[in-house]
Write a structure and sequence with these properties.
With 397 residues, the chain is mainly beta. 11% of the residues lie in helices and 42% in strands. The chain has one helix and 31 strands. The strands form two sheets. It has a 17-stranded mixed sheet that branches. It has a 14-stranded mixed sheet with strand order 5-1-2-7-10-13-16-19-21-23-25-27-29-31, with no helix packed on it. Strand 1 and strand 2 form a beta hairpin.
Amino acid sequence: MSTDRFAAPPPTAFGRPNPFARADRKKSRIGLAGSPAGRPFHRWRGSESAGMPGASQRLLLLRRRQRVFTELRSRSRTIAMSFRFIRPLWAVCGAAALSLGLAAPAAANQVSARIEGSLLIVRGDNLGNQIIVSQNAALDLTIRGQNGTKVNGRDSVVFRRAALQQADIRMAGGNDSVTFTNFAVSNDLYMNLGAGNDTVRTGSSGSSIGVNLTIEGGLGTDTVSLAGWETGQDLYVDGQGGVLQATLTDTSVMGVLTVIGDTANDRVTLTRCTVGLDTSLELGLGADTVTVTDLLGFSFWATTDEGADRLTLTSVSVMEDFGIFTGTENDFVSLTDIVSGKNVYVGTDAGADSVQATDVSAEFDAVFEGGDGVDSLTDRGIFGGEKIEIKEFEIFP
């Protein structure tokens, strides 16, 4: 088959060669060099009658899951329409939504909040601040301080009928905490947590961001927990040099989902998420942990750098390519019920790595590459519609 079927990532994605873009890829099915005679590494164990899905069943499953994208696109249009009704409200009640806030006095644990036009601006000081940001059905926006934090010198401030288009929240230094409940902006939400052990969490209900959601951490341990959120386009989380603990649950991203770690032991957990475009998890040095369960997306790529990383992915379906790239040291990868509309690639680089593959299906090619070191592959069902290539593994339990 030709390499033009592989749409993503480009040949130098994540700073590494894309194995699907290599000109010297072999066209034929490739078995394991030095494998025990007769070992069917590239075939399903059992049969369809024994309950193991065959190629036709797996491709039928993929087609069924692709229908979900029709509903996903429909939902994105519904969200866009809802924000079209929010924007005109600003023309009617914008004056009432102007800041109630007075300039916050210079004191400890102070947060300032104001609205300029349709832009919410929140600024923290260099001490630990804790605030709750919430909206009701009438679009009344409340920012409430907790544990001694003052907002504009008060316990809380309220902006009436605040039909926001954008929000810019910068918490500065200190161990800060920001909780969102039913928060909505029709365009972008940008957050910078600054240095310190910071937390972004979800209150009693999720929030809706009309376009892009960006969360940047800093030095320290940053915890980002989003549950029930929706973005009209991209969601971007960047640890910015600290320890990143990112958890996304029941979250819908209509564009690209990007999570970036750095040199610490980062942890990323995705549960019951839908992503309209690419999902990209880029974790740097350190012993990183990635857990993905019930994800429906367009393509999926996870890359980890040097460190003893642990990746567990269950029930992941994508229309395009699915790729896992781990760095050096002893990594563990567990894949269960993985469906790709194009190709699957797993590369573990140097180290004594362990890969477990159960019901992993690619419409075109499935490639597993162990790299240097004594690597282990447990094959409980790997299927490639055109080719399966398994190489540089030494142990087959």
